[in-house]
Specification:
Structural class: alpha/beta
Strand content: 5-15%
Number of domains: 3
Helix content: 40-55%
CATH topology of the largest domain: Rossmann fold
Radius of gyration: 23 Å
Largest sheet: 8 strands, mixed
Strand order of the largest sheet: 3-2-1-4-5-6-7-8
CATH superfamily of the largest domain: NAD(P)-binding Rossmann-like Domain
CATH class of the largest domain: Alpha Beta
Oligomer: single chain
Length: about 375
């Protein structure tokens, strides 16, 4: 019977580092080791007590001690590591990854004859920050963690992995790897392409005075937030999942073309139905999970335009022990409620802030 006590990592950035911290916090008596190309992240993790051993390469003999190894480097690097890891894996070692696209790694695993020990993994969590220094043992709480086992991996190994994910307070979902890539193309990869394209459209259409940029409303800011994601990472994701992404892009472009034609003919009933159907469908979503994109923990607060107004609110929250992530005046409130926008780090802080500010008779609205 496989017992998960000794864990190895290839790559130790935000996701790998957070997994290591989770395991350290939730698995009693565990031993962790890691290899990183530069060695810097692994050394930092060792000094912080997160891992116990630093490995020198993907085929470091120390990896033979592992019950489970996480491939946490970019997808191409993970695939290149397989032949080397294969030479040192013990017969009872479970292998997984954390990539956003699963087809490539599953096909590589099959070529290397490692199907009977591989379960793909995709923790749908992240942050605008990267690197081991920003890793957190709480990163996966209430986030979906997709598992894509091969057809030949033992079912008891899958259940062990699932139990490990549950110990992180994450939400495991079992999917076929091909289905995973189609789903994420629609709900994660296409939105990033749309956001980047929308930002570039405004950039190209704006005047020299940048009036579009100046008055961009909250709706534009929210829908384009993910355009600030890493270009290196999204280049690889989009090219790795190109067939599925093209498929969903074609559907999206067909809907955009239809909307363009109807709007050009001023067919108000179509426009009304388009917004009504999208509103009803989106309102049916459950946002109890953090999903692939982290939720903004934001409130809007009405304040009087006078000296010290923002400082007063900041002081009230500081005295209550509530940390503010960001605070600022909303100059375009076409789709906003309240003149002051305040971002927090978690949902608990939002609840406390709303209660204490309302106690001080401020008008506060929570962002949806």
């Amino acid at each position: 019977m496989l017992e998960l006590k000794t864990f190895g990592f290839v790559g130790l950035g935000l996701i790998g580092g957070s997994l290591a911290k989770c395991i350290r916090a939730h698995v009693d008596g565990c031993m962790l080791m890691a290899y990183t190309p530069s060695g810097t992240s692994a050394q930092r993790a060792l000094e912080a007590g997160v891992i116990d051993l630093v490995c020198c390469s993907e085929d470091d003999p120390q990896f033979s001690q592992c019950d489970m190894i996480f491939l946490c480097a970019p997808v191409i690097s993970n695939i290149r590591a397989l032949p080397m890891l294969k030479t040192v894996l013990s017969p009872g070692c479970l292998l997984t990854d954390v990539g956003s696209v699963k087809t490539g790694i599953h096909e590589a695993v099959k070529r290397e004859g490692l199907e009977d020990r591989f379960i793909g993994g995709h923790p749908m969590a992240g942050s605008e920050k990267t690197g081991f220094e920003n890793a957190s043992e709480y990163l996966f709480e209430n986030a979906y963690y997709i598992l894509t086992p091969t057809q030949t991996v033992p079912e008891e190994w899958y259940q062990l992995y699932r139990d490990l994910v549950l110990s992180f307070r994450a939400l495991p979902i079992r999917l076929d790897y091909a289905e995973h890539d189609y789903i994420t193309a629609a709900v994660s990869h296409l939105p990033h392409v749309i956001a980047a394209s929308l930002v570039n459209t405004v950039h190209d259409l704006d005047n020299p005075q940048e009036h579009m940029k100046l008055i961009a409303a909250g709706g534009f800011r929210d829908i384009t937030r993910i355009a600030s994601s890493s270009p290196d990472m999204w280049e690889q994701i989009c090219t790795d999942n190109a067939p599925n992404l093209i498929r969903v892009m074609d559907s999206f472009l067909q809907l955009m073309q239809e909307a363009r034609e109807k709007i050009s003919r001023k067919e108000g009933s179509y426009v009304h139905r388009m917004f009504e159907e999208s509103r009803d469908y989106r309102d049916s979503f459950s946002f109890s999970s953090s999903g692939p994109l982290k939720k903004n923990y934001r409130i809007y607060c009405d304040i009087i335009d006078e000296a010290g107004a923002i400082a007063t609110i900041a002081t009230i929250l500081a005295v209550a022990g509530i940390s503010i992530k960001n605070i600022g005046i909303v100059h375009n409130r076409e789709f906003e409620e309240g003149v002051l926008c305040i971002d927090f780090y978690d949902e608990t802080s939002v609840g406390k802030a709303v209660a204490i500010l309302r106690h001080h008779r401020y008008v506060v609205t929570e962002a949806k």
